[in-house]
Amino acid sequence: MNILGISAHYHDSAAALLVDGLPVAAVQEERLSRRKNDAAFPVRAIEWCLDEAGLSPANLDAVVFYEKPMLKFERILTMALREWPHSFKSFPHAMKSSLGEKLWVKGVIRSWLGVAPDKILFSEHHLSHAAAAFLTAPTRDSAILTADGVGEWATLTVGRGRRDHEGRTEIDIFREIRFPHSLGMLYSAFTAFLGFAVNEGEYKVMGLAAYGKPRFADDVRRTIRRTGDGAFRLDMRFFEYQRSAKRSYSRRFVDTFGAPRPYWDALDPTAGDGQRYADIAASVQLVLEETMVDIARTLQRETHLPDLCLGGGVALNGVCNARILRDCGFERVFVPSAPGDAGCALGAALVADRIHFGNPDRAIPDHPYWGPRIDAAELARLARDDGIDLREMESEEALLHQVALDLYAGKIVGWMDGRTEFGPRALGSRSILSAPHTTAQRDRLNRSIKFREEFRPFAPAVPAEAASTYFELPPGGDRMASFMSGVFRVRTEHRAKLAAVTHVDGTARLQTVDGGVAPRFHALLEAYGRISGIPVLLNTSFNLAGEPIVNSAVEGYSTFRRSGIDRLVAGRTIVSKNRKDRISEKGVPEDVEDAAQ
Ligand SMILES: [Fe+2]
């Protein structure tokens, strides 16, 4: 059975294809359209998924959309009427936006794919999140908690997933919290207040929080009232998003927290207003964690299960995820590689397969590499055409050794390998790699390559079996760390040598690399360990600020040419930028020969 899942029209659209119950392809539209957070109907992603499997639309048994547009429209209409007359300015915009492609999704799917109407199905938004989290996780019986900005009505759900030995699958959603009461919207309101782009800058708030003290926590708690059943209600007098498409917080909010940060102002979290912004970030981060911990702890007491699957955009908050693992009584916590709306494309396809059609459960390979493959020959061709230094290494071992030497010499390497990751994080397929040892290296990356705020931390990658040597990784956090979904402490004795990847509070959002799942990246870390003594590399996504992560060799090459990246690698090909940096005949740059001995 061939089932196509689609998420679209909000942000970060994507497509995923299941063949006989297993994913064969999944990719976000932005990687192919090259428009960051592309929300358009994912024509390119669908086309690529079908091509990858050698299928045409006529071969599809079902096409599943990740949410129910009519329910979403009902919510938008209800809110507009409830907030009338305050919503009168946003009403025409909301109606126009909803009555366009969003509401007539069935017609859009039919017109693009030509499939029969009875083959088009709709999942519910949070059920898609729940399925993406639970059905891809290595567990048979698990509590499930999903939280995001909003889907149709739900903004947070709790439930349980079960897969029995006969292959039957059940996902029960016990309870939900409805719009406008939303942890995702609360965090986004603070994201906007702190001068960052909503749906994109939430990472920055989390990074900034580490610099602050939560001295505004009681003020944040006034905006979110806890209810007796462990849930919450927002005090909507502090917010505007329920009635406005443009403003997310109200005058009362500004009276409480002070002037918002203009987005164009430089931000130094250690001085002046920057300190206040950092304190506000620390405060909302703390209140988010407290609320999620209480809800997850209640769910654990209710289900008595050892496992928890987390889904929805809030599960991108690695600090919160790690605290849930530590404080709620669960032994293991699982977060998928794409917990946000893009992942709902895969979740919706799984809902259709396992629940709607009742097909038997199949264990899904536990990795994020479902996207397009890199073509190393294309990189070699581009470099030759441009007359850029290029070297084809004679063996895999020689290549890994050479790249490790370059990294140890302080070179910054664009690393393209295999199939792209499904989800927002680079996990060794499309990564910029660097030595993790000094803050000078971190600053160079920020200034000449990533062009981003200096308070944002970089992440380390480490072989799974060496992780506990360098990081305080609790056993139940293994899977979280393999998808870079949790923030854990760097062991004190290693912080000085891991300065480029240790955040100001002594933590890191590490990625553990399993040799069975990502053998080449794992081998590179080991090769680096043999040379440097520490098998840890700085790993950041292969993109420049404002651009999607690179997909093909040409995009990697273009990014390499436009930035301070020193080397670019795909397959056995190493491309170097500067003639003076040319790799010597012995394969060792001169300045490394001494260091490597
Ligand atoms: Fe969502």
How would you concisely characterize the structure shown here?
This protein has about 600 residues and is of the alpha+beta class. It is about 35% helix and about 20% strand.
Describe this structure in words.
This protein is an alpha+beta fold and 597 residues long. It is built from 21 helices and 25 strands. The chain has an eight-stranded mixed sheet with strand order 14-25-24-15-17-23-18-22, sandwiched between helices. A five-stranded mixed sheet has the order 3-2-1-4-5, with helices on both faces. Helix 6 packs across helix 13. It is globular. The model is unreliable at 580-597 (pLDDT under 50). Fe (ii) ion is lined by residues 125, 129, 148, 151, 312-313, 341.
Task: List the defining traits of the structure above.
21 helices; disordered C terminus; binds fe (ii) ion; alpha+beta; five-stranded mixed β-sheet; 597 residues
Number of helices: 21
Helix-strand category: alpha+beta
Beta-strand residue fraction = 15-25%
Query: What is the CA-atom radius of gyration, in angstroms?
Result: 24 Å
Give the topology.
Layout: E1 2-7, E2 14-19, E3 22-28, H1 29-33, H2 43-53, E4 62-65, H3 69-82, H4 90-102, H5 105-113, E5 120-122, H6 125-134, E6 141-147, E7 154-163, E8 169-178, H7 183-193, H8 202-209, H9 217-223, E9 224-226, E10 232-234, H10 251-257, H11 272-303, E11 307-311, H12 318-327, E12 332-334, H13 344-356, E13 369-373, H14 376-386, E14 389-392, H15 396-408, E15 413-416, E16 419-421, E17 430-434, H16 439-450, E18 459-463, H17 467-470, E19 471-472, H18 478-482, E20 488-490, E21 507-508, E22 511-513, H19 519-532, E23 537-541, H20 553-561, E24 567-570, E25 573-576, H21 590-593
Parallel strand pairs: 1-4, 4-5, 6-11, 11-12, 15-24, 18-22
Antiparallel strand pairs: 1-2, 2-3, 6-7, 7-8, 9-10, 13-16, 14-25, 15-17, 17-23, 18-23, 19-20, 20-21, 24-25
Helix pairs in contact: 3-4, 6-13, 7-11, 8-11, 9-11, 11-12, 14-20, 15-19
Fe (ii) ion is lined by residues 125, 129, 148, 151, 312-313, 341.
